[in-house]
Design goal:
- By secondary structure, this protein is mainly alpha-helical.
- It has 3 helices and 2 strands; from the N terminus they run αααββ.
- Strands 1-2 form a two-stranded antiparallel sheet.
- A hairpin with a 5-residue loop joins strand 1 and strand 2.
């Protein structure tokens, strides 16, 4: 009988709502770093596009310099032409990736502003009153 009374009081204790004695906590957005995951992704993608563009332009200039410095050697001119062609293909791939990024952004919810920064709005749960 004592076990049954203990079990009944334990079940009642677990099912009875308890008032939480928590204070209201206000969390301010950070002043440095990333505000949220969308901000982190957008900044990483911005940096990735800039770095890729710089690498492609360096490769293009390097190929042009090798062509000029080849001195008429057909093998050196062929290597330089290959680097320049690869750099142009890289620019084309980068342009297609950027266009797909902007196109997909219209469906997913991120956009690129005129200033060049990318805004990614990730849906978050609504605040409860």
């Amino acid at each position: 009988m004592k076990k049954l009374v203990f079990l009944g009081s334990a079940i009642t204790a677990f099912l009875t709502p308890v008032q939480a004695l928590a204070a209201n906590i206000n969390i301010a957005p950070p002043t440095q770093g990333f505000r949220d995951i969308g901000d982190a992704i957008s900044k990483i993608l911005s940096i990735a596009f800039v770095v890729a563009l710089l690498l492609v332009l360096i490769m293009l200039i390097w190929g042009a310099f090798e062509w000029i410095a080849s001195g008429g050697d057909k093998e050196a001119v062929g290597k330089a032409r290959g680097k320049i062609l690869n750099a142009l293909i890289g620019i084309a791939i980068l342009a297609v990736a950027f266009a797909l990024f902007r196109f997909a952004g219209q469906f997913v919810g991120f956009n690129i502003e005129d200033s060049g920064s990318i805004n990614l709005s990730v849906p978050v749960p609504a605040k409860q009153p």
